[in-house]
């Protein structure tokens, strides 16, 4: 199974769409108002999956209440990359703060690096690359 999308609560699509476009290296391909939920969404392709940003369509909707209680975002979202060092360099050049200067070994035979939540609207982003032969496994 693949991750179809991860939903991320945001205060402002106007602020968040450019941020996620830089983070993911792709433009937002669709925005949509979902009247039944009282939200406006913005979608980004992320490999085989999608990231969905959700902004409240009013001041007192479900997304606003979530953000009031928990703040923007989710705990973390992991994205697979083919060259973690190149992606780390690209993100640094875009102004994102990384939590490590070098990738470290993570679970499931991965090299990982995290982008600080302050750089991505409160979402802890994980970059991960299959370590394969790089780690002698």
UniProtKB/TrEMBL annotation:
<comment type="similarity">
    <text>Belongs to the methylmalonyl-CoA epimerase family.</text>
</comment>
<dbReference type="InterPro" id="IPR037523">
    <property type="entry name" value="VOC_core"/>
</dbReference>
<dbReference type="GO" id="GO:0046491">
    <property type="term" value="P:L-methylmalonyl-CoA metabolic process"/>
</dbReference>
<protein>
    <submittedName>
        <fullName>Putative methylmalonyl-CoA epimerase</fullName>
    </submittedName>
</protein>
<dbReference type="Pfam" id="PF13669">
    <property type="entry name" value="Glyoxalase_4"/>
</dbReference>
<feature type="domain" description="VOC">
    <location>
        <begin position="2"/>
        <end position="130"/>
    </location>
</feature>
<dbReference type="InterPro" id="IPR029068">
    <property type="entry name" value="Glyas_Bleomycin-R_OHBP_Dase"/>
</dbReference>
<dbReference type="GO" id="GO:0004493">
    <property type="term" value="F:methylmalonyl-CoA epimerase activity"/>
</dbReference>
<dbReference type="InterPro" id="IPR017515">
    <property type="entry name" value="MeMalonyl-CoA_epimerase"/>
</dbReference>
<dbReference type="GO" id="GO:0046872">
    <property type="term" value="F:metal ion binding"/>
</dbReference>
<keyword id="KW-0479">Metal-binding</keyword>
<dbReference type="InterPro" id="IPR051785">
    <property type="entry name" value="MMCE/EMCE_epimerase"/>
</dbReference>
